[in-house]
Amino acid sequence: MYKFPFLEGVKPVSEDVLTSLINRGWKAQIEIVGADGLPVAATAGNVLRPSTTVKISMRLGPCKNGKEAEQAMTRLLTKDPPYNSKVIQLFNVGDNQ
Questions:
Q1: With contact defined as beta carbons under 8 Å apart, do 30 and 57 qualify?
Q2: What is the DSSP letter of 9?
Q3: Are 81 and 90 in contact, with CB atoms under 8 Å apart?
Q4: Which residues on adjacent β-strands are paired with residue 53?
Q5: CA distance 15 to 24
Q6: Cβ atoms of 74 and 43 closer than 8 Å
Q7: 32-40: which pairs have CB atoms within 8 A and are 24 or more residues apart?
Q8: What does the pLDDT look like over 41-54, one tens digit per residue?
Q9: CA quadruple 77, 80, 81, 84: dihedral positive or negative?
């Protein structure tokens, strides 16, 4: 069932094959796929940084509208940024619009 090996004791979100297929193909997923401005974990400390950039991947199910998802993500990210921080968004919407 599993395409990738799991560490000992780690389990998938669901052990049901059908649920796993639905989760991978039909349900929306969001993940941070890259980050800039963060220190290396070995030398990181509790300090202020001038900026942090993250690249977020938002995969939609085949029946979802990309423009609506973009608007929802914009509302979520800009509603109440901490300490009046600035949120800049650039979207690259795929074919599922």
A1: yes
A2: T
A3: no
A4: 36
A5: 13
A6: no
A7: 32/56, 32/57, 33/57
A8: 999 998 888 888 98
A9: positive
**Token pair for 32:** 């941070």
The string of DSSP codes covering 24-73 is HHTS-EEEEEEEESPPPGGG--S---S--EEEEEEE--TTS-HHHHHHHH
Amino acid letter, 71:
Q
Q: 44 forms bridges with which residues in the sheet?
A: none
**pLDDT tens digits for 10-60?**
888 888 889 888 887 788 888 899 999 999 999 999 888 888 898 888 888
Residue 4 in tokens = 């990738």
The H-or-E segment that residue 18 falls in is helix 17-25
97: helix, strand or coil: coil
